[in-house]
Amino acid sequence: xxxxxxxxxxxxxxxxxxxxxxxxxxxxxxxxxxxxxxxxxxxxxxxxxxxxxxxxxxxxxxxxxxxxxxxxxxxxxxxxxxxxxxxxxxxxxxxxxxxxxxxxxxxxxxxxxxxxxxxxxxxxxxxxxxxxxxxxxxxxxxxxxxxxxxxxxxxxxxxxxxxxxxxxxxxxxxxxxxxxxxxxxxxxxxxxxxxxxxxxxxxxxxxxxxxxxxxxxxxxxxxxxxxxxxxxxxxxxxxxxxxxxxxxxxxxxxxxxxxxxxxxxxxxxxxxxxxxxxxxxxxxxxxxxxxxxxxxxxxxxxxxxxxxxxxxxxxxxxxxxxxxxxxxxxxxxxxxxxxxxxxxxxxxxxxxxxxxxxxx
Length: 360
Hints:
Elements: H1 7-29, H2 44-59, H3 63-76, H4 82-111, H5 115-118, H6 133-141, H7 153-163, H8 165-174, H9 176-188, H10 200-214, H11 227-243, H12 250-272, H13 278-285, H14 287-309, H15 313-341, H16 343-349
Helix pairs in contact: 1-2, 1-3, 1-12, 1-13, 1-14, 1-15, 2-15, 3-10, 4-7, 8-9, 8-10, 9-10, 11-12, 14-15, 15-16
């Protein structure tokens, strides 16, 4: 292939990976399930909702596309055989995926049998004692959408994309522009295909990663882009995104806003490489561990905080900003402790990423 990552390219990937996992935590820290803002008067509750919407559904939305891009680039940049790659992904993706899902199921099963905890963990989706065979299969594979540990849909989609990585490469090599235009249109119109579990988002940004490799694009391309103009356009789209909530064109504006936001996001990563950041490098190194371990801890902590302090707007906005920082810190500490004291167990849990982390 002849695609070589420069030292700057590698650092950009590290920084983007770190920033992406931070944004993922902010996405999952948001309890608001609706994009609609109730009421026209400016109230603390309305401001709180808008802030969380911007953090999780606008700025944070670029995180997962960026992670698919990185995973795709890191695979296609090197020569590989299908068999060796699949064997590797069983170790680095599938085994951690199965273990974390099983741990989550076991945790909820135990919690539901403890009277003092059962009321916190008895929502319909997690009522494990009532599951039939379909629910068990769905919990592990997410056939109808997401697995039980819902952030792991990303790992599930990566497993599938690695299985079809060779055919994807062959098709794009033959019809590069045509395929990317079709996928772009599918992304902008938000086509919900879920072809063999795989969403249009996963497919588009995975293919975009190979397209970057194919065209030999590198981080220095940002020297040719007028970033001030792109940033201005992006913030204009952000305003339009918020103002268009509730109208038909919202979903198209939202997708375009995310796409332009991704360009800005990668540009920020490229700009930040001008200085060394121990913090971002540390988060990047343990990013997969953070991704695997954060959800159970975050969900439990939110339930405890809500039970003690209630769900008012003040605690809502405070926990929204504080919890991701706390959870990331705890996950990194947990990873370091495991890595130093039980390296074999840690290696299995994170798919062998205890020597640097670049194994997606």
